[in-house]
From TrEMBL:
Residues 38-189 form the HhH-GPD domain. This is Adenine DNA glycosylase. Its cofactor is [4Fe-4S] cluster. The keyword Membrane does not apply. GO terms for biological process: base-excision repair; mismatch repair. It comes from the Bacteria. It comes from Sediminicola luteus.
Amino acid sequence: MRPTPFSTQIQSWYDKNKRDLPWRNTNDPYKIWLSEIILQQTRVVQGLPYYQKFIDSFPTVSDLANAQEQEVLVLWQGLGYYSRARNLHAAAKMVLSEFDGVFPTDYQNLKKLKGVGDYTASAVSSFCAQEPQAVLDGNVFRVLARYFNIDLAINSTPGQKYFKQLALDLLDKDQPGKHNQAIMEFGALQCTPKSPDCNNCPLNTSCLAIKHGKTDQLPVKHKAKPARMRFFNYLVKLDPDNNTQIQKREGPGIWQNLYEFPLWESDAAIDTHEVETYLNTHVTDKFVNLSRFNDKPKIHKLSHQHLYATFWILEIEKPITDPIAWQDLDKYPMPVLLTDFIKAFKI
């Protein structure tokens, strides 16, 4: 079956413009899967050094599976969406236990791995096994919505179904891997979210969004609910030996299994007097001084919530129970909000 003119043009553009990326120079499904997990909700320029760190530390899926979760989370630190890292580790263990250490390359078995959905399974199976599976990521949605002038919301059930079928109809069944790489790269470099270079686009004579002047209106996406506001007060203890205290976040919710300073979540921003009242009631360590590190709360935006974080420095009179030396904090995986504070705070 001959590829569609759309696919032919996209692949021709790809041959001339594709970036030289390490996961494009291998057929190893482990490395390709790793790159896809890292690049979910992460730009290539940010994800590339993380990919290299993971490959250096865990060259094979067995190395990753046999690592401690804390090692994996420390390497992931700064990428956000930490459930991806936990799922990454769990999936590697599944490859060992359920696939005898051989990384699957077919769509159905890839879907069995923790954290692997339709997109990742389609990408890995088409790249490694040339299965005719069409990928749908943000770049692909954008290219298709603009080229075909589709105003269905990409985050709606009807929209998802429509775009999936369209992507399958356009797929080059003889070269599905190259086709998928090409359309994703086209969206990343040419048909960009803002200010796409339509004048120099090879599809500009047939793109319906250009024809109808709707490039900046597509794709359509339903608005998300307003972000929840939360107020985090971190109690940073320091004893005479420059030891501190941290705790592991347990249970579901943000930053599961990461470490943090003792936390008091208040209903609103608070002042020093309110912190002193809280400490006198809830903290047994006797402190000789309390100071506020940041005058205004540090705003940390997550996908569905905005955190307003204040760091309170407690100078403790006696040695802390279960102390952690300040210089050893980098051994523990922490959210970037806390690692930025640690870098800024000078003992």
